[in-house]
Amino acid sequence: MDKEWPVMVSSGLIDWHLDDRPVPYDTAVAAMETRVAAIRAGTAPEQVWLLEHPPLYTAGTSARREDLVWPDRFPVHQTGRGGQYTYHGPGQRIAYVMLDLARRGRDVRRHVGQLEDWTIAALATFNVRGERREGRVGVWVTTPAGERKIAAIGVRVRRWVTYHGLSINVEPDLAHYDGIVPCGIAEFGVTSLVDLGVPATLADLDVALRETFPKVFGPQA
């Protein structure tokens, strides 16, 4: 059963929507495009949509064919978001963020930075230190085995309304990343909260995302 989580932040009413069953990728994209058009028309409020996908790979606008190592492993979806290849699947929380940048400063780079800030703040509630890396969009952690990516970010903007967003690894099957070079970066691996020894669930992360969202996206400069 779907759940609606309306929450008020200082920039206006944000609809929070949670799907507790995996949503097919094409279905999600169609729903986002419909919502983006409604936000732009002023007939629907901004929305954050929390969901999972069945196992699949997505190719962003910068994806290189050679980075698709195992093309027949899972369905591959071409997408208009920025970035390269990434994996989505069960155990990974996806947050599709549909915000009206016409009211928020018309700054796409700032929006991407806010998505990173939001992820870092949510991870901090689990005592996990998320970090940025120069020239690498997303959020990283330092482990005894080296740097690992825990969250990917890919954004598309249509008439100043954002969609797509971020994915945070809670407890996905990390072996599923073997079919791609994640985000085109071969020298670093991926990790998850559970892989780091944090016994978190998707529901736990959802609470952290809701609590930290207004701190990043609420008051606008």
Write the layout of secondary structure elements.
Layout: E1 3-9, E2 12-18, H1 25-41, E3 46-51, E4 56-59, E5 76-78, E6 85-88, E7 92-98, H2 108-124, E8 131-133, E9 136-143, E10 146-158, E11 161-169, E12 189-190, H3 202-217
Parallel strand pairs: 2-3, 4-5, 10-12
Antiparallel strand pairs: 1-2, 3-7, 4-6, 7-11, 8-9, 9-10, 10-11
Q: Which percent band covers the strand fraction?
A: 25-35%
- Rg, rounded, reads 16 Å
Write down the overall mean pLDDT.
90
Oligomer: single chain
Can you write the helix and strand succession as a string?
EEHEEEEEHEEEEEH
The computed structural class is alpha+beta
Taking pLDDT < 50 over at least 5 consecutive residues as the criterion, the unreliable ranges are 1-11
Total DSSP helices: 3
The shape, in one word, is globular
Report, as a whole number of angstroms, the end-to-end distance. Answer: 37 Å
Q: What would you say this structure looks like, in words?
A:
- The protein has 221 residues and is α+β, with helices and mostly antiparallel strands.
- The strands form two sheets. Strands 1, 2, 3, 7, 8, 9, 10, 11 and 12 form a nine-stranded mixed β-sheet that branches. A three-stranded mixed β-sheet has the order 5-4-6, with no helix packed on it.
- Helix 2 (108-124) crosses helix 3.
- The chain contains three helices and twelve strands.
- 37% of the residues are buried.
